[in-house]
Specification:
Elements: H1 3-8, E1 17-20, H2 32-49, H3 55-63, H4 66-72, H5 81-91, H6 96-99, H7 104-112, E2 118-122, H8 127-137, E3 145-147, H9 160-169, E4 178-182, H10 185-194, E5 197-201, E6 220-221, H11 224-234
Parallel strand pairs: 1-2, 1-4, 2-3, 4-5, 5-6
């Protein structure tokens, strides 16, 4: 390396913000809640829009979310907040506090993260669903905010625009100061395209069981427990605060 290159070389900046996905990332229940959500969406689409069985999931695959598909099909008016909120409230009406329990180990890990790094939940779901999950896990007081699908103008995390919106919401401008943890390979690849420092949580996906073979990812966590270990190793303020798992 020449002298000029040495002079211009710097280490990557310290992260300012960590964006955590919520479902199947901060908790993992073998996709039980995800399954319930899928069923409620399917049932509601059949009852409210007279869609045939399976069409709701097809819309999800085609558009990233069923809601976006319903908008594209003209079944929900994008400019009608009442219709949108009615759909989101209906399909997220789950007894989350009966499905999740407080996770003290996770709480202690998040508390041990460097306090100068801000923490946000960045979810493709709706705010009140993520808030209920955080409350049930006993960690709702540990985050600076929740960024949801409505904040992102109903774009999914497959879209690079949602990551720029999240940065604006979190008041961060440098992409290299953002860390992103998510269980979706598609979301991780989109974040990496933007320039975020991205970590795939889990090597077996709900719809893509072989994603662990993707060689371009720099860091893949092999499950929920290693999410905790990742936080301990890379984000905690000192080894004294690490918790034995």
């Amino acid at each position: 390396m020449s002298g000029s290159n040495i002079d211009s070389y710097t280490l990557r900046p310290k992260p300012k913000v960590i964006f955590f996905d919520c479902d199947d990332c901060l908790y993992f229940d073998n996709w039980k809640i995800a399954g319930h959500l899928t069923t409620k969406i399917e049932d509601h689409c059949q009852e409210a829009f007279n869609l045939p069985n399976g069409r709701a999931y097809e819309l999800y695959k085609e558009h990233g979310t069923c809601l976006r598909g319903l908008m594209a099909e003209g079944l929900i008016d994008r400019d009608c907040p009442k219709s949108i909120d009615g759909f989101l409230d209906k399909v997220h009406d789950l007894p989350i506090h009966q499905m999740l329990v407080p996770d003290d180990k996770l709480r202690q890990i998040i508390l041990a993260i460097d306090p100068t790094i801000r923490k946000y939940v960045f979810t493709a779901s709706v705010r009140h669903h993520a808030a209920r999950c955080l409350q049930a896990l006993g960690i709702d007081d540990l985050f600076d905010g929740i960024i949801d699908v409505k904040d992102c103008n109903f774009e999914t995390k497959h879209s690079v625009s949602s990551f720029h919106i999240a940065m604006n919401k979190a008041s961060v401008t440098n992409v290299e100061e953002c860390i992103f943890l998510d269980d979706s390979l598609t979301n991780i690849l989109a974040a990496s395209q933007v320039g975020w420092r991205s970590v795939l949580v889990g090597t077996t996906g709900r719809d893509c069981v072989r994603r662990s073979q993707v060689s371009m990812l720099k860091l893949k966590l092999r499950g929920y427990t290693t999410l905790k270990r990742f936080c301990q190793k890379y984000l905690c303020t000192s080894t004294d605060s690490q918790i034995m798992l």
